[in-house]
Amino acid sequence: MKKIVRFAAILLLILIVGAFLVIPPVVDSLFNGVVRIPATPPSQRALMLHSELRIVDLHADTLLWGRNLLHRSDRGHVDIPRLLEGNVGIQVFTAVTKTPRGLNYERNDATSDNIFWLALVQHWPPGTWRSLTERALYLARRFDAAVAESNGTLVPIRSSPELTAYLQRREREKHITAGILGIEGAQAMDGKLDNLDRLVAAGYRYISLAHFFDNEFAGSSAGVHKGGLTPLGRKLVSKMNEKKIIIDLAHASPQTIHDVLLLTSRPVLYSHGGLQGNCNNRRNLTDEEARGIARTGGIIGIGFWPTAVCGSDPKAIARAIRYTAGVVGVEHVALGSDFDGAVRTPFDAAHLSELTDALLKEGFTAEEIHALMGENALRFFRKNLPE
Which residue of 5, 198, 303, 369 is surrounded by the most CB atoms within 10 Å? Predict the structure, then answer.
């Protein structure tokens, strides 16, 4: 009997350890796929132009999945080797702190928490199991550890002077890339305005006010009530303006977007998504919302997944960019891939030249492609990161 009990205990331990080792990569592979649609390789003209670009992507959830950023992975979309291969100069790494069970774009409440289970199987510190602020701080530490281990290959950017210095260095050293930290959803503040200071100190430089559910600060486009800014949310907007922390309107409800555009004194960002005029669904912006963001001096990051662009190939992304540029002007459009955001994309970071090729085929000039692929975002960050 004792042998049976001992055997059962050992078997249980093996199963638990196996779950901790196997589940995270399996989930990562299932959620963050690449749709490889047969296509002709990028033209030599596209490859030459791509090598000259200063590429900026406004949104990737890579930190969530626990991959070693410095090692090339066969899972997901982003790591440092693939950023370098794709000539990505700056990648925004965003912290996802909570998502609801049954995730959808129509209606989600805040009563469930998928990230708790991910934190558990990835061995996040116990403090992160219940505190969303601690989760964001932990993900920032993951980024910092990758920076330290990279020996200068991955450069953190937290201010406008740091951005200028990095770009000057990259003129001399092409084999480096950089990261900016953002947060997906103000629920990461655990409902406490004072936690903004802790997140800023950890390096976060933009925060979206809501993610897939309504929170204490703002309504989500996929929330239950889809309301606007709460009184606490209005205080948060003012405090973010004061600290020069960028407001991201991705996932925000129409009323939240309306409220922020009336209240903000600084340019705002829409980090990843599309426009309803090109791809009609609740997640995307109306033309008028897009124009409102542009009027602040803001930029709109076009996503790479079907809900954003109504297609699964580079041509669909280029078409969405063309539509958006027609609404707000080329100078207000950027890339917002949503890489590693539990989405399937036509390519990973290493193959961004496929998008350059698609933009050429869409009829954009080389100058416009320079702007769309990075220069617009660089101009925005120079003006809006803290000094």
Answer: 303
